[in-house]
UniProtKB/TrEMBL annotation, chain A:
Biological classification of the source: Bacteria, Pseudomonadati, Pseudomonadota, Alphaproteobacteria, Hyphomicrobiales
Organism: Mesorhizobium hawassense
GO biological process: tetrahydrofolate metabolic process
Name of the protein this chain belongs to: Sarcosine oxidase subunit beta
Main subcellular localisation: cytoplasm
Family under the similarity heading: Belongs to the SoxB family.
Keywords, alphabetical: Cytoplasm, FAD, Flavoprotein, FMN, Nucleotide-binding, Oxidoreductase
Cytoplasm recorded as keyword: yes
Gene3D superfamilies reported for this sequence: D-Amino Acid Oxidase, subunit A, domain 2, FAD/NAD(P)-binding domain
Automatic annotation (TrEMBL), chain B:
A UniProt-annotated Pfam family: SoxD
Gene3D superfamilies, per the entry: Folate-binding superfamily (3.30.2270.10)
Signal peptide range: none
Native species: Mesorhizobium hawassense
TM helices/strands, residue ranges: none
NCBIfam families linked to this entry: soxD (TIGR01374)
Protein name: Sarcosine oxidase subunit delta
GO BP term, pick one: tetrahydrofolate metabolic process
UniProtKB/TrEMBL annotation, chain C:
Record-annotated Aminomethyltransferase C-terminal domain positions: 900-985
UniProt KW keywords: Oxidoreductase
Pfam families: FAD_oxidored, Fer2_4, GCV_T, GCV_T_C, SO_alpha_A3
Protein name: Sarcosine oxidase subunit alpha
Record-annotated GCVT N-terminal domain positions: 607-879
Matching NCBIfam families: soxA (TIGR01372)
Matching PANTHER family: AMINOMETHYLTRANSFERASE, AMINOMETHYLTRANSFERASE, MITOCHONDRIAL
Residues spanning the signal sequence: none
Length: 417, 91, 993
């Protein structure tokens, strides 16, 4: 069913009675060429790219709850490709380019909005680090601008320039960065993948792997029975360790809670995405009008999907320090997601040591922006059995080799990434 | 969250710093690269009750072993690390 | 002085008629009374239209009388204090209150955007996902800006919030949410038991529904019982009743969040007072006595101004003596709704009809109807005729299929009651369905919490008192308080009967979520499109995501979804409940942590002296450090810094370096301990000697560096970088307590105990002689390079003196107890005057360290190895140390790593900038030839040109090579030479001399 203003207008005439489900709610078949565990953005994008780019359409996406119920549905919707290290820079730009054509590809409006992502700096050292990163971006063909305070005063006069403990001195701007409507990304991929024949199977929890005499994974055991598969890919960030453990694997990952917050809807106040460089706070304003903001992870291992007050206070302190006009705007909702915090802050997309099982994990708090890129390179890996060149450094064995991709330079301490 | 420090009593989360799973033991000097890799990088990442290292940095600076459920955040036991507390003078 | 207030009753209510208050709504002046909310005052003045809806801009009135209000949202106050989306139903009236309706233009009465209603057939749930995709560029340029302008509700102030907020802690045995019958009974029982009790009430008057619904308790009218109970509680010193305070969340370890609206009932907080206070309440037990919320029935036109919850109508009439209508009709599916009819009759209002969805009503109500002369229509409301001026006519479909019409100017609706299950569900608990009351009730709760009374699904007054009292007794017991609880308050339980009715099918828009304009047909459409899961329903239609968090809409929405899917309501389930219970000002969570008080400020011991000198300060973490000391006539920072460097290199200067982390390491095994945490050996260090040390993380990358001195056989003095002072202490304590508990070693942080100054330059010894006791031998033999020991100063003070040099000059660092720091700075100035002593700041410090090729923060960036920094030879092969094994991994010892090298522009006049990348000559910059970058730069007075350090692929093998410094961000690209990183005195003769 093609979506457009014309189909909408036609549907209106019949009282919208003729719309079909956005995706088919499929029942599991006995066997698929590829099974993707996890019906989040990454899993559904992988399925869509397998079907649309790599010609593999006998694909199932298994979701233990409802699609998008994990981190795809609880993030702060930011998209950007402003990374500084080889491995990340090219990959996130691949992802950004896919964002830029996603809606037309999927025939679904995911409200991809390139209103800009601005990282603020507050010291010379921070400016220098941003300059290094911004130059990396430019050398990789990615847009980046280094703005000084005067430029920011014009652009964002409401920032605390004059009474701040750590005054804003400037910022690194990526104009092509922005936000996308997170749920719509999930539904758009589900819609388009389903149209190409992918089975999306909700309420189907994977409880184990079936393996042959050589140990090769031959399928999965689920709450809805055994399902055979040529290959199994897991895209279950937040639960990667738990799923990998079913195959006897231990991963360089810890699960941590990241909180996010949204305010009441207000008329347009903040134009793009901005990050505070002297505290833990980043913010954008949704099309509906709510300020969507967050900060640091709570810092302790957790699967509870909820956080505690100290971080909530810390985030709001950052918000008030940077934008003191938001004091009377009310925080409406608080939620927590489980982050796959990897040991260097960068993701893992690789074959696992178990034949037939492929891993897409370790997204830390950066998974949303990676959605299309992750789907594309994971589909490439599943289809061709080799890493896409932009994901070639996201190998699982990089920690054994010492080839970490550590943007923050914090080492093997996941809660500091 | 509130942690009952064996030296200071019950204190608020903000006084403590988290390190992680207390189970991995630092391998002996001759254990080899694979053992150290395992110690530094691999995690059980338990969904359930876990022994963890926490540091009471805003209090007595003791490292603590905290038994905590990662699904509920419930803390069931706290004990000092082996070398926390009194000096081992002459030990 | 009391205005018209045409809809105000002459008697009754909890308002103070002797205290009239004037207020403005949309520029028009009205009067109300002390005790009013803005909503009740608007009701008293006959104002029915108070807002416009989110999407269709439909006219909206007041639906409720509490914090669940979806419609009556206003911009309260003006200017910097403008508060968008403020519920008129909870805004306490004060003299001069100024409120404006929102989301309308040009006026509430004539709102251009109500044209959206014409497009309503297209603006269904999720319509925007299906269009606005072509052409792609139009989204940011055209569609989205229009959508953004149309969306949102009120306007936030665009200037800093002028008010202050406070944060506080409270500790108690029992915290209670709600002061209705259950909450007061709970407080009574717990208080009498001797428990420390905090009772939070979001209203400004305690009593809950008793304020509107009355009743008889212990044989007394409810108001008298409330007064008596409050009086008794007031005698208990450990019972604290906090009105205007909402318990909004529950966190781990019995921590609760509450927001106290300290001064929102005044135009402006009194001087030195806060607007609001965030409470972190730590309680052993908690009792949720937050009551329940009456729920609407969804029918066509149910958003017409004048349609109001039945209980809200009682609140306005009984509590505020304000009549929402003159002639009312009631639409109910339960017994409780009839109380509104009783109230209306008692207030002298006309009752047009009761539309009761149940097949039978009680004999008592039937006789009430016949006495009152109004019909009881068995059926349901099929539509409402009316508009922005309010309800005019109500059409009813009768049980038999016939139609009826009722003329009325107000319609009270009661669809039953939903217990307030938020707090009990915030730890991701799910409530369970109770068929008895056709509502969700708590099913378990976070540790230590119970629900009581209506919040627990017990709607009778007697039951509320009983459950509250029992919960209070049990909570106090659990907290170890066992005093006598005395007698339990008693009251009768009115029977509660209800026939569930969620949605009346009919023509016209029937709203489920009034604030977000989600209709019953939107729910049906969502189901049709596969958004059946309640979470999908919520996200697709935005049901329950408005500022009221769906308090009046969620259950109805999922009931309609259940009906269209043929599932039961409990099978359909609820969405996850998320705190806070009511929206809380961001400012309150921040408290005083804003502006200059965002974070603490640490001052060095010589700060005040430096400020007197006119120093410019720089933030280094929390520290303020003197960055340079400008002198009259100097045109910019560079001139000052250059002067300071030259003064040091030619004479003597000093710099406060107290911000370095300092740790005393004591014990017989102190040396052995340091051997394990540093890559180089310290057990072999001679007493009275210092050594530069490098620490790795366990993953083999560099963590920190500093000099550590051996002051005695069993005593070392370790220094860290400023940035890592606290972290290194934590790391060393981990090593000591967890990794190596058998070692006899103790660590003491002495960072704040010692003021430390670097004194550098060829005349350093001359200056020091003026400071140090003449008996101390400062000669090269008596105090050689890297010597370290305690010395007596003139006057007898003991100091620690270290002959270490960061600048490359003949230099010492001297430590004195921090309280002498300022005096030391002053004395250095006095004693140094003959030698032209010059204080220097962190910029000059940085220049001299770059000239010397010393690495610092930009090079110790957490991704470099010791070898990358040119310090690989320091790694001992004779001992184990933290990070030794992992440092040997293949990629960390690869030959093509980026390593520290010196960099200088080939054009001596060129300015070098940090962050420029290194690209081989003659190549087009790209990811494959991006070989590193400039980490640190300075203008070198010695070389009279800009120089820098960089991390460059195989840099040390390429000394002398000309490469490009590529800096597209700043539009620069120029040739630089890779060179030895030690630009100044490469053989180190000066510092040893």
């Amino acid at each position: 069913m093609k979506y457009s203003i014309f189909s909408l207008a036609r549907a209106a005439l019949s009282g919208h009675k003729n719309w079909k489900p956005t995706w088919r709610d499929a029942a599991p078949k006995d066997r698929y060429d590829v099974i993707i565990i996890g019906g989040g953005g990454h899993g559904l994008a992988t399925a869509w790219f397998l079907a649309s780019e790599f010609g593999i359409r006998n694909v199932a996406v298994l979701e233990k709850g409802w699609i998008g119920s994990g981190n795809a549905g609880r993030n702060t919707t930011i998209i950007r490709s402003n990374y500084g290290l080889p491995g990340n820079t090219g990959f996130y730009e691949l992802s950004m380019k896919l964002w830029e054509k996603m809606e037309q590809d999927l025939n679904y409006n995911a409200m991809v909005s390139q209103r800009g992502v601005l990282n603020l700096y507050h010291s010379d050292a921070q400016r220098d680090a941003f300059a290094r990163r911004g130059n990396t971006m430019r050398i990789n063909g990615i847009d980046a601008e280094l703005l000084d305070q005067a430029a920011l005063r014009k652009m964002l006069p409401f920032l605390n320039f004059d009474h701040a403990r750590f005054p804003v001195q400037g910022g690194l701007l990526q104009r092509r960065g922005g936000t996308a409507r997170h749920d719509a990304v999930v539904w758009g991929y589900a819609h388009a993948a389903s149209e190409l024949g992918v089975d999306i199977i909700q309420n189907c929890e994977v409880t184990g792997f079936t393996r042959d005499a050589n140990g090769t994974v031959t399928g999965v055991e689920t709450s809805r029975g055994k399902i055979g598969a040529g290959k199994v890919g897991m895209a279950v960030a937040g639960s990667s360790s738990r799923v990998a453990a079913m195959a006897g694997l231990r991963l360089p990952i810890e699960s941590h809670v990241l909180q996010a917050f949204v305010s009441e809807a207000i008329k347009p106040l903040i134009p793009g995405v901005m990050t505070f460089g002297a505290g833990h706070f980043y913010v954008s304003q949704s099309d509906k009008g709510g300020l969507v903001f967050g900060g640091d992870i709570d810092g302790y291992n957790s699967y509870a999907q909820r956080g505690n007050l100290p971080v909530m206070e810390d985030v709001c302190e950052g918000g008030m320090a940077l934008i003191p006009m938001i004091g009377r705007v009310r925080l409406l909702r608080q939620w927590g997601g489980i982050m796959d915090m990897s040991m260097d802050g960068s993701p893992i997309i690789d074959k696992s040591p178990v034949d037939g099982l492929y891993i897409n994990a370790g997204w830390c708090y950066g998974g949303f922006k990676a959605t299309p890129g992750s789907g594309f390179v994971f589909a490439h890996l599943l289809a061709r059995d080799e890493s896409h060149k932009e994901a070639a450094l996201f190998r699982l064995d990089r920690f054994q080799r010492g080839a970490m991709i550590d943007e923050k330079g914090q080492g093997a301490q996941p809660n500091l990434h | 969250m509130r942690i009952v420090c064996p030296f200071c009593g019950e204190r608020e989360l903000g006084e403590f710093t988290y390190l992680g799973d207390a189970k991995p033991q630092r391998p002996a000097a001759d254990a080899g690269e694979e053992a150290v890799y395992d110690y530094v990088y691999l995690r059980d990442n338990i969904a359930g009750v876990m022994n963890e290292h926490w540091y009471h940095g805003a209090g007595c600076r003791a490292w603590l072993k905290v038994t905590r459920n990662t699904l509920t955040h419930e803390i069931s036991a706290v004990e000092p690390a082996a070398g926390a507390g009194a000096a081992k003078v002459g030990a | 002085m009391r205005g018209d207030q045409a809809n105000r009753l002459n008697n009754g209510g909890l308002i103070d008629r002797s205290a009239p208050l004037n207020f403005r709504f949309d520029g028009k002046t009205f009067f109300g009374f002390k005790g009013d909310t803005l909503a009740s005052a608007l009701v008293a003045n006959g104002v029915k239209l108070v807002g416009r809806s989110f999407k269709y801009h439909r006219p909206r009135g007041i639906l409720t009388a509490g914090s669940e209000e979806p419609n009556a949202l206003v911009e309260l106050r003006s200017g910097a204090r403008r508060e968008p989306n403020t519920r008129a139903t909870t805004a306490e009236l004060y003299d001069g209150l100024d409120a404006a309706s929102q989301n309308r233009w040009p006026s509430l009465n004539f709102d251009i955007m109500s044209v959206n209603q014409l497009f309503a057939p297209i603006f269904v749930a999720g319509f925007y996902y299906k269009t606005f995709m072509w052409p792609a560029k139009f989204w940011e340029a055209i569609y989205e800006p229009a959508i953004r302008r149309a969306a949102g509700l009120g306007r936030a102030a665009q200037v800093p919030d002028p008010d202050h907020y406070d944060k506080a802690w409270a500790h108690c045995d029992v915290v209670i949410a709600g002061s209705g019958p259950a909450g007061l009974a709970a407080a009574l029982a717990a208080g009498r038991s001797g428990a420390r009790v905090i009772l939070c009430e979001e209203d400004f008057v305690p009593g809950g529904r008793l304020l509107a619904d009355g009743g008889t308790i212990d044989g007394l009218p409810a108001a008298e019982w409330v007064a008596r109970t409050l009086a008794e509680l007031a005698t208990m010193p450990d019972v604290r009743i906090m009105t205007r305070t909402t318990l909004f969340g529950v966190y781990d370890g019995g921590t609760y969040g509450a927001i106290e609206r300290v001064n929102d009932h005044l135009p402006v907080p009194p001087e030195h007072q806060v607007r609001q206070r965030l409470w972190r309440i730590v309680a052993k037990r908690s009792i949720v006595a937050a009551g329940s919320i009456e729920r609407p029935i969804v029918f066509a036109g149910n958003d017409t101004p004048g349609v109001m919850m039945a209980s809200a109508m009682r609140s306005y009439i009984n509590r505020y003596a304000a009549t929402p209508a003159r002639r009312i009709a009631l639409f109910t599916n339960n017994e409780d709704g009839w109380r509104t009819v009783e109230t209306a009759i008692a207030a002298g209002l006309q009752v047009a009809a009761v539309i009761d969805a149940r097949p039978d009503v009680s004999p008592a109500h039937r006789s009430l109807a016949s006495k009152g002369g109004f019909p009881v229509l068995h059926g349901s409301v099929a539509g409402v005729d009316g508009g922005k001026t309010g309800v005019r006519k109500i059409s009813v479909s009768l049980a038999g299929g016939a139609r009826a019409e009722v003329e009325a100017d107000g319609l009270a609706v009661s669809g039953g009651w939903n217990p307030t299950v938020g707090l009990t569900s915030y730890h991701r608990g799910r409530p369970k369905w109770s068929d008895d009351i056709a509502a969700f009730v708590p099913d378990g709760a976070p540790p230590g919490m119970v629900a009581a009374g209506a919040a627990n699904g017990a709607f009778g007054l007697g039951a509320c008192l009983r459950e509250g009292f029992e919960a209070g007794t049990a909570a106090a017991r659990d907290a170890g308080r066992t005093g006598s609880t005395g007698s339990m308050p008693v009251a009768d339980d009115a029977a509660f009967s209800l026939t569930p009715l969620w949605h009346v099918a009919g023509k016209g828009k029937a709203f489920v979520d009034q604030q977000h304009d989600v209709t019953a047909s939107d729910v049906e459409l969502a189901q049709r499109e596969g958004f059946e899961s309640v979470e999908h329903l919520k996200r697709y239609t935005t049901l329950g995501m408005a500022t009221d968090q769906g308090k009046t809409s969620n259950v109805a929405g999922l009931a309609i979804m259940a009906a269209v899917t043929g599932k039961s309501i409990p099978e359909t389930g609820t969405t996850i409940y998320r705190p806070p219970y009511v929206p809380v000002a961001i400012g309150a969570f921040a408290g005083h942590h804003r502006d200059q008080n965002f974070h603490a400020t640490r001052l060095t011991p010589s700060h005040h002296w430096a400020a007197e000198q006119g120093a410019i300060f720089v933030d280094t973490g929390l520290w303020k450090r003197a960055q340079w000391y400008p002198r009259a006539g100097e045109k910019d920072w560079l001139e000052s810094v250059t002067r300071e460097v030259k003064a040091v290199r030619s004479g003597v200067g000093f710099c406060d370096v107290s911000t370095l982390g300092k740790i005393d390491v004591h014990g017989a095994d102190a040396g052995a301990f340091l051997d394990r945490v540093y890559i180089n050996a310290f057990s072999s260090l001679a007493v009275r000697k210092a050594r530069y040390g490098l620490m790795l993380r366990e993953d083999g990358l560099v963590y920190d560096d500093g000099t550590t001195s051996r002051l005695a056989e069993d005593h070392y003095f370790l220094t860290t970088t400023t940035a890592k002072a606290g972290l290194v202490m934590q790391h060393l304590e981990f090593c000591r307590q967890v990794l190596f508990p058998g070692l006899d070693v103790q660590l003491t942080s002495v960072s704040d105990q010692w003021a430390q100054f670097s004194i550098a330059g060829p005349k350093t010894r001359d200056l020091l002689k003026e400071i140090v006791d003449p008996a101390e031998d400062l000669s090269n033999e008596g105090f050689p390079f890297m010597g370290a020991r305690e010395v007596k100063l003139r006057g007898g003070l003991t100091a620690r003196l270290f002959r270490i040099s960061f600048s490359g000059e003949m230099a010492f660092e001297i430590s004195v107890p921090a309280r002498y720091g300022e005096a030391m700075a002053r004395n250095l100035m006095i004693a140094g005057k003959p030698f032209g002593v010059t204080p220097y700041g962190t910029e000059a410090l940085g220049v001299m360290r770059i000239e010397k090729g010393h690495v610092a923060g930009p090079e110790l960036n957490g991704t470099t190895t010791a070898a990358d920094l040119g310090l690989g030879k320091m790694m001992s092969t004779k001992k184990d140390f933290i990070g030794r094994v992992m440092a040997g991994r293949e990629a960390l010892v690869a030959p093509n790593r980026q390593v520290v090298v010196g960099i200088k522009p080939t054009d001596k006049a060129r300015r070098l900038r940090s962050g420029a990348h290194v690209i081989p000559k003659g190549e087009v910059p790209g990811p494959d030839n991006d070989q590193g970058y400039v980490t640190s730069v300075c203008f070198s007075p010695v070389l009279d040109q800009w120089i820098g350090l960089g991390l460059v692929e195989r840099g040390r093998e390429r000394i002398g090579e000309i490469v490009r410094a590529h800096d597209p961000l700043r539009g620069e690209d120029y040739d630089v030479e890779l060179c030895n990183p030690v630009f100044y005195d490469p053989d180190g003769g000066l510092q040893r001399g």
